[in-house]
Every structure is written in C-alpha cells, then in structure tokens.
Amino acid sequence: MVESVLIVGAGLAAHKVVENLRKEGFEGRIALVGDEKRRPYDRPGLSKAVLLGDAEPDDLYLAEASFYDEKGVETHFGDAAVAIDREAKTVTLASGTELTYDALVLATGSRARTLDLPGAGLPGILTLRRFEDCLALKDALTPSTRLVIVGGGWIGLEAAAAAREADCEVTVLEHFALPLLGVLGERIATWFADLHRKHGVDLRTGVDVVGFTERDGRVAGVQLADGEVVEADVVLVGVGAIPNTDLAAAAGLAVENGVRVDEHLRTADPNVYAIGDIAHAHNTALGHPLRVEHWDNARRQGRLAALALLGRDDVHDWQPYFYTDQYDVSMEYLGHAGQGDEVVVRGSLDDDHFSAYWLARDTVTAAMQVNEPRLAGPLRKLVGQVVDRGRLADPGVPLEEHVSG
User: Fold this and answer.
1) Cα separations (Å) of 291 from 179, 284, 364?
2) By C-alpha distance, which of 122, 135, 112, 141 is closest to 221?
3) What sign has the CA pseudo-torsion 18, 22, 26, 27?
4) How far apart are CA 279 and CA 301, in angstroms?
5) Vertex 155, ends 153 and 158: CA angle to 5°?
6) What torsion do the CA atoms of 50, 368, 321, 197 make, to the nearest 10 degrees?
7) CA 321, CA 299: separation in Å to the nearest integer?
8) pLDDT tens per residue, range 134-184
C-alpha cells in the first residue's frame, strides 16, 4: 500500500495529482516540490488571457494559497529537486532537504528552448514559459513597441495576436515555409498565416536568424542570414520547449523523447511515475507512445496518475486535444494527424467558420473546429471513424451520420 506520495514539479499535472488523490479519499502523506516559489498556476493564460488583458496574473493560480494546507499537503516551493535515490526511495532538494517516498511522481514539465546565437543573452530578449516571463512581456506591450517574434508556433502566434491588440508593431520570423506547417499541413497553415497578415503582422517565412544586435546595452534588432537586421525594441523567442528529463535520466530511468512510461504512467521502476510534458506515455487509443505538451494532457494525466497510485486500472486512452484563441478566432483540435494525412474542409475558409478533418486513407485521425464551438462534441466522436470524404465535406450532411454505433 502506498502511504507516502512525493510529487516533483508544481504545475497543472502535479496539482491534479494532489487534487484527485484527496478527492478519492487518500489519507496518506503528500509532498509537493517545485523549483518556482509560486504555487501551481495555469500556463495557457500566460500567452492568452493575461497578455490580452482579459485576466489578472493572480487569476492563473489553480487554487487559493490555503488549499494545500487544508488538504494536508507538505509543500516545498522554490526548492528544486536535484537528485533521486531510487534504492533508498529519497529525493534530495537544492536546500539539502531529503524527502522520502513510497511512490514518486515526476511532473517536471518543460523549459523554453533558447538560441545559442551571438547576442542571445541581451536584455530585452524574452521567452514565455513562466509567470515572470508573462509579466515582463505584458509590461513591454505598449503602443508602437516594435516586437519581433522568433518562431511561428502556437506561443509565437498567440503572443503576436495579443501584441497587435495592444497596438504594437509585430514581426514574426519563421524558419519554415509556413507557421504551424508540421502540425496543420499546408492548407490550414496558410489560413493561419493569412489571419495574422490580415491583422497587420509582418509574417516572414523561410528566414533564418543568425544573431541579435545591441544598442545602449539592450537588444536593438534581429540579424537574418541574408544580412538584413529587423529592428526591435523587444524580442520574444518562441522556438519550442525542452522536456525537463535530466533528473530522471540521472536516476537511471529510461529517457527517449521524454521519460518512457506505460499506459498507467509507470516507469520501469514500479514506484516511479512520470506525467505531463515529460511523459512519453503509451496511448492505448493510438497504439503507440506519445508525448504531448498541452494543457488537457497535463490535466488528464494528473488524474490518471492519482488513480494508478490508488490501484485503479484506468489507462492513457484519450486523443490529444489543444485549443488556441487568436484575434476573433477560437479553435479546438482533437487527435493526432500523421505526416501525409489529407485534409478535408467542411464550410468555407473565407468566412472563418469551418471545420477540418485529417484523414489517413478514409479514417479520421484528427479534427478541428474554428469558431464553431457546437461541433466540439461531434468532433470527439468522429476521430477514428471511417468516413465518406465527399459527404464529410458537405455541410448539409449532419456529422452524426459519420459516427458508427
């Protein structure tokens, strides 16, 4: 029987372990360790609601400050875990504190990827991963500020939309031919590119950044491979994230694109679990391991880990899900499209109200809706179904007709 659970990492996934253990009646010891001094908070708001001014930074906290005391949780915020001794079942913190466990849950998340380029350490070059990053960027988004964003992924595009709402001059520099090309394919990626250009973003694709220029001790521009310097008051580097697997690797756990875990989120050590951004977890719905860095996955894996700790047989069996809000566009995406999957669009891309479906042969591997929230439920049922492409593209044919059973 597990009587003592130690959770390393203090983000959404970790919070959900705590919440669900207590909800399910676990009365044993729970200790929560985080390298940030703040209690767990919701990261999507960093690039969405807070930057847009629709929420205050303190709205991001997942629970009141009293929550962990009320639930009898021992917290160690601002004191990072630095070593795991799996034989002794202990974790050592930066302060020298040694914590014991019966079961260890690793939820160490990801860190922002940085650029190893000349000038990359200049003041005014920001990333967007933590609470303080959001505050720094929000303070910088004043009218006429020249913001250059390196990277056209979800973080970069969401920040671009927020900056345009704040009347900043925004340039996005993307290495590939289109932003989000690898995720969405050419047709839908082109639609997102057009969306930003229509809102005044100078979106440049197929460009390579080679360094940063300086003036008066701060960043003043972004140097491109062709010699051009794009002037900037502030630079946001949004080139992806790196899973924090060093602690797990040093403890001898299998690390391959994340910490390898089974469908119950267990590592090869039955006393150690991994969840959230770092978990390369076997997905029974897809039939193969998958690592996902989105909010929904962290939330659901946190609950699954809690149930596994309590001896339940629940498994990692859901389709990946993510959403984004940019300008007047709200989008939800469900599933996992493969390279080469074909896209079927239902509705018109021109009026910004449509849905799209990725198909491998005639099986739906992923689906998304843009400004059509009523479709969220049907989309969940449609992924995995074999469909008639022509009828799927016809808005006159109810989506429910494509769902078997």
Assistant:
1) 21, 13, 20
2) 122
3) positive
4) 9
5) 105
6) -40
7) 11
8) 999 999 999 999 999 999 999 999 999 999 999 999 999 999 999 999 999
